[in-house]
Amino acid sequence: MYGMYASSDILFENTNIERIKKLKIYYPNEMILYPGKKYPLVLMVNGTGVEYPKYEPTFKHLSSWGFIVAGSDDPSTADAVSVISTLKYKLELNKTKDSIFYDKINIEKIGLSGHSQGGCGVFNAITKHGEFSKYFKCAFASSATTKSLIDKWNLKPFEYDSELVNIPIMIVCSKGNADQAICPFEETKKNYDKIKNVKKVLGARKGVDHGDMLVAHDAYMTAWFCYILLNDEIAGKVFIGKDAEFLINKENWEDCEIENIN
Q1: pTM of the full predicted structure?
Q2: Are the C-beta atoms of 214 and 58 separated by less than 8 Å?
Q3: Pick from 134, 219, 221, 235: nearest CA to 170
Q4: CB 207 within 8 A of CB 177
């Protein structure tokens, strides 16, 4: 049942994780009440200048739907080094008996979400980090910096190849002026088109711009993770069929595509 979770949080300081001083983790309150239950994990990959304190409402929202959610203060997430380090740390906590996360993480249900530079981090996390990339089962990339800007500013750590994506992924952006400079829809769609043989979703949010996307994409991001990681049938209706809710929400979204979802 939706909305059944309350959120609690914990802040890990000086974690000795590569490039991370502080790591914020939200989890469902019920987690400490049911010792035998495991929860999916979503790692958040922040954009430039948007560290976890600026989008904690997103953490709270996801955890209220039954996810453990973690994000950091790393200002340079595009190469995915810090998110992979966070993954390793969470896997260690899952095996540490005196941790509140001991045996609480369903390691078969791990997803990640990133915005802007963090969107690049999403692509790189699932394509460039060997065995650790294989832990990710679902991804969401919002307003991910695309090739034209990466080339213009010679942003080598931002470079990625979406053709290598092999897990379900939802890719969104807006058509606002800032997004058209950072992630033009035409390039965003090219990234989407290069991905083959997986469940995938594309859409452009109307009436917002780059900085607004963290809030504007939240509902569909949550539905995406509920559908893929929780096997939620109600959330699945948002993406399944010719009359999928995401496709017919013409008031808020445009140029929407859904492939390989029946």
Answers
A1: 0.96
A2: yes
A3: 221
A4: no
| Tens of pLDDT, residues 140-152 | 999 999 999 999 9
Q: Which two tokens stand for residue 236?
A: 């699945």
Say how far apart CA 254 and CA 243 lie, in whole Å: 14
Q: Which residues contact 59 (CB under 8 A, 6 or more apart)?
A: 7, 9, 24, 26, 44, 52, 69, 71
- Cα–Cα distance measured from residue 195 to residue 164, given in angstroms and rounded to the nearest whole number: 7
Cα separation, 123 vs 201, whole angstroms = 15
- How many alpha carbons lie under 13 Å from residue 177 in its C-beta half-sphere? 0
- How many percent of the chain have pLDDT more than 90? 86
Q: Output phi, psi for 16, to 5 deg.
A: 65, 20
Position 51 scores a pLDDT of 84
Residue 219 carries which side chain, given as an amino acid letter? A
**Tokens encoding 66:** 């039954």
Helix (H) or strand (E) holding 33: none
Over residues 24-53, the mean pLDDT reads: 92
DSSP per residue, 190-246:
HHHHT--SS-EEEEEETT--GGGHHHHTHHHHHHHHHHHHS--HHHHTTTSSTT-HH
Q: With left for phi above 0 and alpha for psi between -120 and 50, is residue 150 left, alpha or beta?
A: alpha
| 106: enclosing H helix or E strand | strand 105-115
Q: Residue with structure tokens 């109307």?
A: 206
Other Cβ atoms within 10 Å of 231 Cβ, number: 10
The three-state secondary structure class of 40 is: strand
Residues 53-68 pLDDT 10s: 888 889 999 999 999 9
The span from the CA of 104 to the CA of 111, in Å, is 15
